[in-house]
Amino acid sequence: MRVLLLSNSTAPGKEYLEHAMEALAEMLTGVRRLVFVPFALADHDGYTAQAAKALAPLRVEVAGAHEGDPIKLFNSAQAVFVGGGNTFRLLRALYARELLAPIRDRVAHGTVYIGSSAGTNVACPTIRTTNDMPIVQPPSFDAGGLVPFQINPHYLDPVEGDVHMGETREERLGQFLEENDVPVLGLREGTWLRRVDSSLTLGGDEVGARLFQRGHEPREIPSGADLSRLLETVALFR
Q1: Average pLDDT, the chain
Q2: Alpha-carbon distance 103 to 94, whole Å?
């Protein structure tokens, strides 16, 4: 199993995916054809074209999952890339097209999975730790389960002196853990997770990540850390 889960696909002053190109090139070694899943945004053609342009230097042929029978497309490709956008819209589309199980099966049999933001959320057991507004209603919050723990992409640290009266990201994840017993990894911008079979590593910017676990104080995780133990998680949801 080869999985790359990005917190974000854009970075200040850089082109789409430019900040993660080295990690993408490593993960896509030997990949000739990739299926891009654009359903988190409304403009499927435009989003697919953006992904194809970004991946062109890697000499990877990109086809949109909306351009034909997705199952046939998956079977003819060596990688699937689920783009970011709104997680609820993405998951509803995956259910409507009955794609969750086929993606899970293909990845289990060697197809590379790349997710960014919403695409990272749907690689978790559920989408309950997304930051997105539920603009549509999927039939379930259950997602792909390519990793057995939860991720919070775009994680933002509390800002001292901030006058915003809503909950911080840390407080919201604390509320999630009051109801559920499963680790949540807060991926800061510019970071990603790389899974190769039973190995899991945090990559990207030196800002690292923040690990939340029920009954424990949040813990800083440095870039380069081995997080393989998280793959042994037995999640308990309510």
Answers
A1: 96
A2: 10
pLDDT at position 192, please? 98
Active-site residue 117, yes or no?
yes
> Any residues with CB less than 8 A from the CB of 159 and at least 6 apart, and which?
none
91-127, pLDDT tens digit by residue? 999 999 999 999 999 999 999 999 999 999 999 999 9
Residue type present at position 169: R
Give DSSP secondary structure letters for 44-89.
HHHHHHHHHHHHGGGT-EEEETTSS-HHHHHHT-SEEEE--S-HHH
Residue carrying structure tokens 């970004």 = 54
**pLDDT tier for residue 165 given thresholds of 50, 70 and 90:** low
* Catalytic status, residue 205: no
The arithmetic mean of pLDDT across residues 213-238, rounded, is 96
Q: Are 84 and 116 in contact (CB under 8 A)?
A: yes
Going along the chain from its start, the domains and CATH numbers come out as 2-227 (3.40.50.880)
Whole-angstrom Cα distance, residue 18 to residue 164? 32
The pLDDT, as a whole number, for residue 161 is 72
Q: Is there a contact between 151 and 179 (Cβ–Cβ < 8 Å)?
A: no
Q: Which candidate in 7, 9, 116, 117 is catalytic?
A: 117
d(CA 219, CA 154): 17
Note the pLDDT of residue 144: 97
Catalytic residue (one of 66, 154, 205, 223): 154
How would you label 32-44 residue by residue, b for 16+ Cβ within 10 Å and e otherwise?
eebbbbbbbbeeb
- Note whether 130 and 123 are within 8 A (CB): no
What tokens appear for 26 in the block? 């490593």
The question of whether 132 is a catalytic residue gets the answer yes
